[in-house]
């Protein structure tokens, strides 16, 4: 299931990981993962709990430093860069738990996301220098552009905590968009949302990609994954076991074996079946509880 506006695969990947891995003590949380994310597409990262999905995001975004492998983004090796420099290169992310400042306005939250693009320092802020005033004006304008993209421009003055769950999710996405990324990482964006809110979120994600953004998402809801993803990367025990289109992934023998194995043993992957899943497919294995 591919978005009709999605460009075909061509040219250099937007992001490439080569033999990527990280160890915590003796545990390989991510191990020898080689994969590519293509520009202008939606890539879903799926797998059971403990598969290494969020750790994979933390490596790409600079929160963790890999113990092996490289991360190439837009042709540049960003492996050694700190988080703020990775954001500056054009990778932004959201988190499983909505990290917004409830007491601040929606606009102020979005402005925080734009600050990575500013140059003023602490002294500028204390003295209210011309550079600080210029940066604040730029941040306000950038934040409003982000709010317009997520449909919250009309709620800019409201306290973020006054919004419903969907609204708060959109604020979190606006904070990431305000940094003007090329690649947006969404970590379980639909967590805690009802079906109507999930559909609205899917519409927003499609809109962002049609506007030129590339998105990678970790998500447990397989109806969302299959309804959105152009490509799917499957992790299991920290290792890549498959990557391809949704049609390819649902019939991949390694994926089916891993997920049906979890189902047969009453694992989390098999707690609940997708409606309409065909026997012998990933959907039939209940992968939505990954």
Kindly summarize this structure in a few lines.
Keywords: ATP-binding, Nucleotide-binding, Transport. With 290 residues, the protein is of the alpha/beta class. It has two domains: 1-90 and 182-290, 3-Layer(aba) Sandwich (Rossmann fold), CATH 3.40.50; 100-180, no CATH class.
3D architecture notes:
There is one protein chain. With 290 residues, this protein is of the alpha/beta class. It is built from 10 helices and 10 strands. It has helices at residues 53-60, 83-89, 106-114, 122-127, 130-150, 165-177, 195-210, 222-228, 246-250, 253-264, and strands at residues 15-24, 27-37, 42-46, 68-73, 76-77, 91-93, 183-187, 214-218, 231-236, 239-244. Strands 6-7-8-3-9-10 form a 6-stranded mixed β-sheet, with helices on both faces. It has a 4-stranded antiparallel β-sheet with strand order 2-1-4-5, with helices on one face. The radius of gyration is 19 Å and the shape is globular.
Question: Topology, please?
Answer:
Layout: E1 15-24, E2 27-37, E3 42-46, H1 53-60, E4 68-73, E5 76-77, H2 83-89, E6 91-93, H3 106-114, H4 122-127, H5 130-150, H6 165-177, E7 183-187, H7 195-210, E8 214-218, H8 222-228, E9 231-236, E10 239-244, H9 246-250, H10 253-264
Domain ABC transporter: 15-262
Protein name: Branched-chain amino acid ABC transporter, ATP-binding protein
Keywords: ATP-binding, Nucleotide-binding, Transport
SSE succession: EEEHEEHEHHHHEHEHEEHH
Stretches where pLDDT is under 50 for at least 5 consecutive residues are: 1-9, 120-126, 262-279, 284-290
Number of strands: 10
**Overall spatial form:** globular
Number of helical regions:
10
Q: What is the SS-derived class?
A: alpha/beta
Name of the CATH class of the largest domain? Alpha Beta
Task: Give the averaged pLDDT, no decimals.
Answer: 83
Give, in spatial order, the strands making up the sheet with the most strands. Answer: 6-7-8-3-9-10
The radius of gyration is: 19 Å
Cα separation of the termini: 20 Å
Task: Give the total of domains.
Answer: 2
Share in β-strands: 15-25%
């Amino acid at each position: 299931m591919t978005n009709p506006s999605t460009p075909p695969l061509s040219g250099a990947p937007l992001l490439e990981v080569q033999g990527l891995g990280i160890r915590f003590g003796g545990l390989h949380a991510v191990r020898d993962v080689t994969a590519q994310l293509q520009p202008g597409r939606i890539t879903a990262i799926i797998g059971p709990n403990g598969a290494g999905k969020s750790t994979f995001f933390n490596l790409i975004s600079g929160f963790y430093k890999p113990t092996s492998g490289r991360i190439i983004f837009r042709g540049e090796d960003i492996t050694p860069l700190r988080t703020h420099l990775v954001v500056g290169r054009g990778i932004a992310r959201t988190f499983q738990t909505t990290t917004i400042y409830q007491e601040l306005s929606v606009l102020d939250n979005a402005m925080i996301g734009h600050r990575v693009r500013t140059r003023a320092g602490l002294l500028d802020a204390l003295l209210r220098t011309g550079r600080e005033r210029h940066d604040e004006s730029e941040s306000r304008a950038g934040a409003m552009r982000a709010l317009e993209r997520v449909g919250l421009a009309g709620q800019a003055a409201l306290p973020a905590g006054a919004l419903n769950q969907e609204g708060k999710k959109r604020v979190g996405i606006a904070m990431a968009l305000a940094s003007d990324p090329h690649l947006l990482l969404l970590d379980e964006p639909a967590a805690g949302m009802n079906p109507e809110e999930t559909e609205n979120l899917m519409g927003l994600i499609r809109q962002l990609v049609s506007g030129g953004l590339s998105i990678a998402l970790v998500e447990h809801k397989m109806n969302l994954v299959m309804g959105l993803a152009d490509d799917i990367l499957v992790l299991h025990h920290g290792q890549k076991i498959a990557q391809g289109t949704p049609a390819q992934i649902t019939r991949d023998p390694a994926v089916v074996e891993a997920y049906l194995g979890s189902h047969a043993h009453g694992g989390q992957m098999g707690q609940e079946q997708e409606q309409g899943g065909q026997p012998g497919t990933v959907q039939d294995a209940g992968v939505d509880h990954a």
